[in-house]
Amino acid sequence: MCSKLIIVPTPIGNLEDITLRALKVLQEADLILAEDTRTSSILLKKFGITTHMASYHMHNEHRQVVTVLEKIRQGKLVALISDAGTPGISDPGFLLARECLEEGIPVECLPGPTALIPALINSGFPADRFCFEGFLPVKKGRRSRLEFLAAETRTVILYESPFRLLKTLEQLSQYMGPDRPACVCRELTKIHQETRRGTLSELCQWYGQNTPKGEIVIVLKGRGKDHETEQ
Ligand code: SAM
Q1: Exposure check for the chain: N or C terminus, fewer CB within 10 A?
Q2: What pLDDT score does 79 carry?
Q3: How much is the pTM?
Q4: What domains sit in the chain, N to C, each tagged with a CATH number?
Q5: For 76-94, what is the mean pLDDT?
């Protein structure tokens, strides 16, 4: 009997980034909830893990929560994984963790891969205080978020798709000023990993001429005391 939900981070590109403890938990769990069972089967197969999987994603999580809570109450150990990184970080996970805690069910998150931390450290910007914003709203609320973030003095971390990168950099430049130092981390932990640092204006120019591919994190230096000169 081990009634518990364990949230298990999985690699963001390099399968060797899985931790020994993550492998042990995934092997010993009674059930693995996976965002996409086909994607996760590649990881499980590589490490010889045969635990039964069920799908748990943004389109079925409300329905699944009820079933999962019941299984845990019956004494099952349930592990939650997403396609990549830490569940709950711009991925499903928050709802299940909250519902478990409200029901008095123990929840534990293992430490492990997530894209925001390596991007933050690679940027070279202050990492003592930072704010993670995930994806900017695509339409409604985007402008007010950009206005709010322009005044942020801590380092700001954003997730972005390659298709929207240039537009987002241009808007960031518009709101934060073209001289704001920024960093784009692409394909972290993968063969074609790239970290590009520069002002927003330099990054706009680069990505205007070089169409990006793959997964992207944008890191922005917080607004400095001399921000008037950044506008
Ligand atoms: N749960 C994940 C985490 O802990 O980082 C995030 C999942 S979110 C759906 C996917 C976004 O994370 C991508 O669009 C990209 O912004 C970022 N991301 C994930 N893997 C990445 C990688 N290898 N390199 C750069 N960014 C990555």
Answers
A1: N
A2: 98
A3: 0.96
A4: 4-109 (3.40.1010.10), 116-227 (3.30.950.10)
A5: 97
